[in-house]
Structures are given as C-alpha cells and as structure tokens.
Specification:
By secondary structure, the chain is of the alpha/beta class. The protein has 28 helices and 22 strands.
Amino acid sequence: MTSFRERIRASIENKNLQKALDANAQRRVEGSVAAFASLPDHQDRRQRAHRIRENVIANLDQVAAKFLAKVEANGFSVHLAKDSAEAVKIALEIIENLPQRHKEHKEKQNNILVHPRSSLVKKSLIAKSKSMVTEEIELNEALESAGHRVVETDLGEYIVQLRHEKPSHIITPAVHLRRQEVAQLFHDELGIPYTEDIPTLTEAARQTLREVFLSADVGVSGVNFGIAESGSLCIVTNEGNGRMVTTLPSTHIAMMGMERLLPTMDDLALMLSLLPRSATTQKISVYTQFIQRPLDRQERHLIFLDNGRSNLRLSPINDGLMCIRCGACLNACPIFREIGGHAYASVYPGPIGSVISAGLFGPEHAPLAQACTVCGACKEACPVDIDLPKMLLRVRAGQFPSPSGRGARGEGGAGIPLVVKLGLNTYRRIALHPRLFGVAQKWIGRLASTTKSASTGFLPLPAWTGWGYSKDFPRPAKTPFRERINHHTTGMPRKDIPKISMEKKKQIGTDDTLTLIPQSTIDFLASRFSMELKELSGEIISVSAKELPKKLIAYLQERGVTRVQTDAASAEYLQNQEIAHQTEADPNIEVGITAAVAAVAETGSLLITGENRNQLCVSLLPEIHIAILQAKDILKSLEEVLALSEIRNAPAASLISGPSRTADIEMTLTIGVHGPRELIVFLVDG
C-alpha cells in the first residue's frame, strides 16, 4: 500500500482532480455563506447544538437505552453489533432468511410494487441509499461475496460503485470526477451514447435505478439521527432514493452508529436548521424522512453499531463522536481542497476523518493528522462547533484509544520523519523563550535576505521537506511583525471609528421582517411559504375551497392527464369521469395527488404522512406530485411542525421541500432524480 505522502503527491499531480476539487470548494463555501445568511442567530444555534451533542455523548448509555426501547416498542427488530464483523453477520442472516417470508408476503399482495423475481431466485437484490456506516464496515463487499447483488442508489455512490472506487467525500461521493469521466463511464457501463450533458446522464441513472427500486428484496439505509423520545429514525436526502429503499422493499435494514442520537424532536429541529446549510448549502433538504413503524407487510430492522465508539468515547478525542457528518470541515480544509478524499485511504477523510479514523481503526491512521495546518478553518465551519484542531493535535500526540479503551495508544508524532521531529523539538524549546524566539526570527530574516534561489528568488529548502515540489517557500520579512506594528499608527483612535449600520430590509419574507410583521396572520405565512417553495422550483396555484375541484380538474385536463393516483383525502376532488383515479400505487401513473398535513413557512416544506405503502407512493413514484394544502395549516417554523402528533402517530412521514434534485456531477444542480420532477401545490384559502 502506498504511503500517505505518496498518495498526496499523486493527488497534486492529477490535473483533473485539482480542477474538480477547486470547483467543489468554491461553490460549497460560497453556498454555505449564503445559506447561513438567512439564519442570523446561527452562532447561538451552533453553541446550543454543541451542548446537545456533548450531553448525548456524555450520557450515551442512558440515551441509547431509551431510544432502543422505543424503537423496539414501535415494531422494529433491534440488533446490537459490537463490531463490523458482527454487524455484517447480522445483515447476512436477515437477508439470507428472506425467501420464504417474501414468498408468503407476495402471495398476499396483488399490486406491482413487488417484483416476482425475489421468490424465484436464491440470492437477493439489495437497494442501498448512501450510508457511511455501511462503508465503514464494508457491507457491500461482504454481501457481494455471499452472492447477493448490491446497488448503490445515490447518484454519486452509484457512479463510484460503477468505477469500483470508494467515496471521496462524506456528502459528495464523486466530487473527484469531472463530467467527461462520468460520461465515458455511463457510455461504457450503461450503453448510452456518449454525452456530457448532465441532465441526460442523470436521466440515464434514473431509468436504470428505477427498476432496482421496484425489484429490490431489501432496502438498506443509514440513519442521520435517532430520536430518543419517540424512537423515530430521521433520514435526510435530496434525490428520493432514501424514501424509495425504506418504502418499496418488504424488508428495510437501517444501519446506525450508536452516537447518532438526539433526545427530542426540538433538538432535531435545531440540527435540521444547521445540517443542510453546512452539508449542501440548502435551508433544508428535499426529503426529511421520519420512520416510526413498519409499513403493511414489511419488516424493519435496526442494526445499532458500536465498532470502537465505546472506546473512542472514553478517550481524549471523544469529541469526534459529536460529528453530524455534514462534510463542512472537508470543504473548508485547505489540505483536503488540494488532495481530495482518496489520499486519506479511509472511509472518513478530511479533518474529522483524521480524528475518528485513528480513534476507530487504529494507529495506522494516525499519520493522517499530520496533514493539518492547524489553521482552525474546520472548527469555524463545523455546525456543532467541534474543536477539531485540538483533536488533531491530540491524535498527533498519540492520545487515541488503546485496545482496552483507556489511555493513549502509540506515541506522538506518528508518520513524522525523525529529522522533522528533532526540528520540531528544537523549535518548541526556542519558542518557549520569547527573547530567544525573537533573536531566531531576526536571524532567519537576515539569512533569507542574502540566500536566494536563482530561479525563484525565494529561500531554498532541502528536497526532503517537500517545499519546492508543489509550492515555493516565501522569503520571510526582514523586519519582524512586532517591530512593524509598534511603529504603525492608524491616525484615528479606534473608539472614534464610525460604526456602519445596515438598513433594515423591508421586503416580505426576509428574516429581519419576521419581528416587524404579525406572525399569526394566515396571509403572511402563506406568502412566506409561497416565496420559499418557488425558490425550491415548486409551483403555487392559489384557489378558494369552493373552486378547488374545478380548477384541479381543469389543470389536469390542460396537461393531458387522464389517470392519477390519490390518497383518500384527495379523491373527493376528482369525482369526474374524465379523470380516472386510484389509491393503489402504479409506477406508470404520471401524477400523484396528496393532501398535506401541514407546512413550514420559513423553509417552504410540506408535511406528508402515510399509513401504508400506497399512501407514501403517491408523493414518491409519479413524475408530478400535486399537493393540496390548506392555508390555515401553514406554521411558521420547523420546531412547530415537528411538534405535531401526526408525525409520531404515523408509521412514516416526510417533509418535502421541492422536487427531487442532485448536484453529484460537477456540483451542477439537476431537478428530477428518483423522486418527482415537479411539485405543484394547490394552496387553498378559506
């Protein structure tokens, strides 16, 4: 296996990788700044989130016991896995005991959602949504070795699976690839004509994976958060594949790291205001799923994984367990932005990966922490304010878990050559004495002013330092900073510098106006909701209760729609022979019509619940999703909607924020992936 240093050099030499990383970093950072601009109190929220996660890790045994008891009471089969081998064994046992159960289920079902292949073949088809925990335990490799077929359904994960690679980013698995590489891959593997048009490439993946969703025996997902008070699983996605793999198959396996817990729905609302902004620069993800119970004729399993987390919790780097897997520290890190994720050779790259990889997987990953400038950008970007620089320094010092889970493992400075260690020790001794340090600074400055490189004019350094390979070492200043600052004057006392005041925005819908305009009025909340939904590519049609049936039918006829799927609440509006409607799911139906339980004004999100598979498929399988929303059911905030009993009482519920989307190919936004391409809301007043 190549060394970390060799992988770094290979990454820097890869021109395509450098262009891909530069584009990702720039867009992510700019997008995150814009997303947080709409959250004026985000620094306060970061501190609250930090305290919540800190408390969970400190009291993990109690929080986990409460959560698991609720999950089991909700009808899940709960499995505790101490390590990756046990987790894989449990998953294999669940999957390899499927055939008879599935055959019995299929004999009872008369809809086309379940493909007949499963009862006829020995091995199973597994549809997976993106899960870092399954990458951690190498679940795919184990299932495939046992003869099962595993298909990643997140677009980025699907791309890297076709390339037989590992993800290179926690959030954007194919961030290291450019569209030309994806185009050639799809031409070779899917047999489509070569094209670099990203919507066309996305459509090819949609068509290929749709059959996987409809045919899968098992759906495997990760879990973003587990809620202790209700036993709910929260899964956050944009493409719709998360909803597919947890809804369509007769067996759903959720794989969850034991630290991914929150005490209450209020705590979840806070995390959901931070996670999407940090991860994908959105106010909220398209689909925020809540799973409480199995659906009709469905089994749900939860595999609750330790795999070194208990040991890590007792170590000096236990704050690494507070991570909510947003990937913000990767985007902010100047090192990751140069070398990418594959250079780390760990499922968890970047600053957070350098901490938890050493903590979970052992001393061979300790050298990753040396790839850190201790600039603090990762801490500044972290939505839960983890002090990553401190954690990275502790890893460098060898303060990660021992086999027993207590104390340090290995010695400090892992991965650093002996000569560098000697140099650092010398620097430390000099830096501890201010006068000696000042003298050393002046000496280096004088040396730099007389010793120059003929080609660059900069101070030359030996080749073993790495300087000069990809970067030149700048010439230090002749006059130390302290001397220059002591002679510098601004000409104006600091207290006299005038403060710049920002004029209050008056445009309706900005966060500043929320305290100026009455929050309780239906008109205001409807206006805010409409504005936010339009930003998410949704469409609003305002109607009165009286004219709703007529306008709905006219809209469908105008689009040439003759058959729709509805839920029970929406069927009453279609008492017209020209529009056939049914409640049974059918992937060939173009339009699905649902009634929304509630909506969030500040994010443009709809709350949809489902008692069974058919109800959930109305807003999932069709190309066009039409939702009927009563204006009186629009609430201001996410906190208010998550407090509704309808979420806890339903087997499954989803917050839907616009049509499905992805940006997995060159960070280019594409509307319409696995879920609907269009979201139209009939907003009913009165």
